[in-house]
Write a structure and sequence with these properties.
By secondary structure, this protein is an alpha/beta fold. It is 25% helix and 26% strand. It contains four helices and seven strands; from the N terminus they run αβαβαβαββββ.
């Protein structure tokens, strides 16, 4: 797929994710966004799903297996303003690819306690898994070459768009 010709409506996919999550997320669950795209999505979902529980943000930086190569990057620190012990948690991310970010995020969560359940919702599943990780809720699936990066962006009005980089 040519990056210059790539077009995917992130706002429409977000609305699909809202519909899909309305069916399965219970009022006692906590949404936890994975920095940065997942955190943006979780903030919007928390409002649109009228979640009564606290919203969290989790970073994968300290538990990544490529930490020494990537460093801290642009990551925000983990903020979990609720007791993780026994909580039902929905991890929210923009793009699921190799599964390595999910592995790191689950390790980070367990540093804070043992949740009752951890579920995963993503806007886009692009395949290419290197670890046995699967999302519970997905807005769409796409197939992209491994050398391309699908990136979610958010403008000043909170509107989501995708960019594809080689």
């Amino acid at each position: 797929m040519n990056a210059g010709l790539f077009s995917m409506d992130a706002q429409a996919l977000y609305q699909q994710l809202v519909k899909n999550l309305q069916r399965v997320v219970t009022p006692d669950a906590h949404l936890v966004g994975i920095t940065s795209g997942g955190a943006w999505l979780a903030q919007a979902l928390h409002q649109d799903l009228a979640m009564p529980t606290s919203l969290g943000i989790v970073s994968s930086s300290l538990h990544r297996d490529d930490f020494f190569k990537r460093g801290m990057a642009e990551s925000v620190a983990t903020k979990l303003p609720f007791d993780v012990e026994g909580a039902v948690i929905w991890l929210i991310d923009d793009v699921l690819f190799t599964g390595r970010t999910m592995r790191a995020v689950v390790n980070e969560l367990f540093d804070y306690g043992r949740p009752k359940a951890v579920h995963l919702a993503v806007l886009v599943d692009r395949g290419g898994r290197e670890l046995p990780v699967q999302a519970d809720v997905v807005a769409t699936q796409v197939s992209l070459p491994s050398n391309q990066t699908l990136r979610l962006t958010r403008d000043n009005q909170g509107q989501f768009t995708f960019s594809l980089e080689d």
